[in-house]
Write a structure and sequence with these properties.
Elements: H1 19-27, H2 41-57, H3 64-77, E1 84-86, H4 88-99, E2 101-104, E3 107-111, E4 121-126, H5 131-135, E5 142-147, E6 156-157, H6 163-170, E7 177-183, E8 191-196, E9 198-201, E10 205-211, E11 214-219, H7 226-241, E12 248-251, H8 260-270, E13 275-280, E14 288-291, E15 303-307, H9 314-324, E16 329-332, E17 340-346, E18 352-361, E19 377-378, H10 384-400, H11 442-455, H12 457-479
Parallel strand pairs: 11-12, 12-15, 15-16, 16-19
Antiparallel strand pairs: 1-18, 2-9, 3-4, 4-5, 5-6, 5-7, 7-8, 10-11, 13-14, 13-18, 17-18
Length: 481
C-alpha cells in the first residue's frame, strides 16, 4: 500500500538472465547458487535459452521489451492475484488513482475468488457519483467481456485477462463510450452496459445530515487526502449540529480500500489509544505496528459502521479496529476479506512492481484474510425483487390511503401551528441523469441521498438503532437504578 524506493539498477535486458531481477527484489546480493530455496542455475539457464530461441527462430521479429514484460508477468502470475508487474502506463495510472483523478468508468475490480484468481473480472465496488455507479453496476457483478469502443468486434473476454489489462481496456478519454458485458447473480445470461467515460475527480468523503445532530459520513476509498477531508467533514457536521452529536453513521460499504496510512489516520479519529493494526511479513518477520493517539480524538457518541462484501482492505482495517476496541457497532453483511499488504516498488525505467509483502492483523490479533470481518448486526440489503415490490406497495398505498386531508372542507395544518407541527417531506423522485458528465452538484448528491434513505435497508436500520440508543440512554440516566 505504501511506496518504497528500490536499489535496483537498470532494467535487465534480454541478453542477461531475467530471473536475476526477481532475486534482487527478494534478497539482494545473495548468490543464486547458494540460496537453498532459490531457483537452480539450470532453471535460469532454461529461461534464457527459451528467450534466445524465440529471438532467433520465431516466425516474426519480436520486441525484446515485450518479451521481458511477458516473462515478468508470467512469473508474477504464479503468485497471489494482488501481485503484478506495472508497465509504465499502468504505474502512472495507479499514481493517478491514489490522487483521485483519472479518466474512465469509476469502479474497483478484482480477479476471481480464489488464490489463483481464476474466473472473470469482478466488481468490488463502483465509486459514488461516477458513470459506473450511475449506470447501475453493483458489487459482485462479473465483467464477462470488455468492448473498449462499444462495438462487439472489439470485445475481449476477461477470463484469461489479468487485472491490469482489464484496467487499461476500461480506461480512456472522457466522452468515449465502452460496452461491458455484466453477469449478475440471478441473471441467466450477461447483459450489455454501454457507459460513457468521464473525468473522475473523486472526493472520497461525503457528508449528509440525516437530522440536525445526526450526521452520515461516507468514505468511498482511501486516497491521499481522505483523513484531511474527513476532519473537514466532521468540523462541518459539528457546526451544523450546533452542539454534541447524537450519533454518527460511518458508511464503508463498497469501499475497496486504498492507502494504509490513511486507514490508520481515519481509525485514529475515533480511538484515543491502543493498537489500530499491525503487519507481519514472511514467517512472522518485519512486524510493524500502528497505534492511536489521544490528540484530535472525536468525542464519545454512539457510532455505527456500515459494511458489506464490497468493503475490502483498508476499510476492513478501520471497521475491524473500531469493532475490536468496542468503539462502534458494525452493521450490514460480512466484508470482502482482503488482509494482505501490497508494496509498490518503482523500477528504474518508470515501471513498477506491486508485491504482496505482508499480512495485516487487527488489534485482537485476528487476520481477516479470507475470514472477513463479521458485522455485529447482520442486515442484508433489499433484493431487486423486494425493492420492486416495496415501490409498488407504496404506490398502491398512496392511491388508496384516505385521511382528513381528503375530506372536503377540512382544516388546514398551517406551519408552526402546534408544538409538534412539522411539514412532511415529499417522497423524492428518481433522478434522471443528463447526457454528458455525471450530475455531481451538491443538489444532485443530496437528492440521491434522500432517495437512498427510502430504499436502503441497512442505512435505515442503522438510523433506527442510533435513535433507540439515544432514547434508552436517557431512560437509564434518568432512572438512576
Amino acid at each position: 500500500m505504501s511506496t518504497k524506493r528500490s536499489a535496483l539498477g537498470k532494467m535487465i535486458r534480454i541478453a542477461a538472465p531475467l530471473a536475476l531481477l526477481a532475486a534482487l527484489v527478494a534478497g539482494g546480493a545473495q548468490s543464486l547458487r547458494s540460496s537453498p530455496t532459490g531457483p537452480s542455475y539450470e532453471d535460469l539457464s532454461l529461461l534464457t535459452n527459451v528467450l534466445h530461441l524465440v529471438r532467433q527462430h520465431y516466425v516474426k521479429d519480436v520486441d525484446e521489451h515485450q518479451l521481458v514484460e511477458g516473462a515478468l508477468k508470467g512469473m508474477l502470475d504464479t503468485l497471489d492475484p494482488h501481485t503484478s508487474y506495472l508497465s509504465r502506463d499502468l504505474y502512472k495510472e495507479m499514481q493517478r488513482d491514489t490522487k483521485g483523478e483519472f479518466e474512465g468508468l469509476g469502479i474497483e475490480i478484482t480477479k476471481g475468488d480464489g488464490e489463483k484468481g481464476d474466473g472473470f473480472v469482478t466488481v468490488v465496488a463502483p465509486i459514488d457519483g461516477t458513470p459506473a455507479a450511475l449506470a447501475g453496476l453493483q458489487a459482485k457483478d462479473q465483467i464477462v467481456a470488455v468492448c473498449p469502443d462499444a462495438t462487439e468486434k472489439s470485445c475481449k473476454g476477461t477470463q484469461d485477462m489479468n487485472l491490469l489489462e482489464a484496467v487499461k481496456m476500461m480506461r480512456g478519454p472522457r466522452g468515449t463510450k465502452i460496452m461491458i458485458q455484466i453477469l449478475r447473480s440471478g441473471w441467466n445470461q450477461p447483459k450489455p452496459f454501454i457507459i460513457k467515460r468521464a473525468s473522475i475527480r473523486v472526493s472520497s468523503v461525503q457528508l449528509h445530515m440525516i437530522e440536525k445532530d445526526l450526521p452520515y459520513v461516507r468514505i468511498s476509498q482511501f486516497q491521499e487526502r481522505t483523513a484531511e477531508d474527513l476532519q473537514d467533514a466532521l468540523k462541518l457536521a459539528h457546526a451544523k449540529a450546533g452542539g454534541p452529536l447524537r450519533g454518527l453513521v460511518l458508511d464503508l460499504r463498497d469501499n475497496p480500500g486504498g492507502l494504509l496510512d490513511q486507514a490508520v489516520k481515519v481509525g485514529d479519529v475515533w480511538l484515543e489509544s491502543g493498537l489500530i493494526v499491525f503487519s507481519e511479513g514472511r514467517s512472522g518477520g518485519n512486524r510493524m505496528e500502528w497505534h492511536a493517539k489521544r490528540e484530535g480524538t472525536e468525542g464519545e457518541y454512539p457510532m455505527i459502521v456500515l459494511v458489506n462484501g464490497g468493503s475490502a482492505s483498508a476499510s476492513e482495517i478501520v471497521s475491524g479496529a473500531l469493532q475490536d476496541h468496542k468503539r462502534a457497532l458494525l452493521l450490514g453483511s460480512q466484508t470482502f476479506g482482503k488482509g494482505s499488504v501490497q508494496t509498490i516498488i518503482p523500477l528504474e525505467d518508470g515501471s513498477g512492481l506491486r508485491l504482496t509483502t505482508a499480512l495485516y492483523y487487527l488489534p485482537s490479533g485476528r487476520s481477516i484474510q479470507e475470514v472477513r470481518v463479521q458485522p455485529d448486526v447482520l442486515v442484508e440489503p433489499f433484493s431487486e425483487a423486494e425493492l420492486t415490490a416495496a415501490q409498488e406497495s407504496r404506490t398502491q398505498e398512496r392511491r388508496r390511503s384516505t385521511g382528513e386531508v381528503d375530506l372536503e372542507g377540512h382544516f388546514e395544518n398551517k406551519p408552526g401551528a402546534g408544538a409538534g407541527a412539522k411539514e412532511t417531506a415529499p417522497i423524492p423522485e428518481p433522478i434522471a441523469e443528463p447526457e454528458g458528465e455525471p450530475a455531481n452538484t451538491e443538489e444532485a448528491k443530496e437528492a440521491r441521498f434522500q432517495q437512498q434513505l427510502g430504499i436502503d435497508r441497512q442505512l435505515t436500520r442503522a438510523v433506527e438503532l442510533l435513535k433507540s440508543w439515544t432514547i434508552f440512554s436517557k431512560l437509564t440516566s434518568e432512572g438512576g437504578a
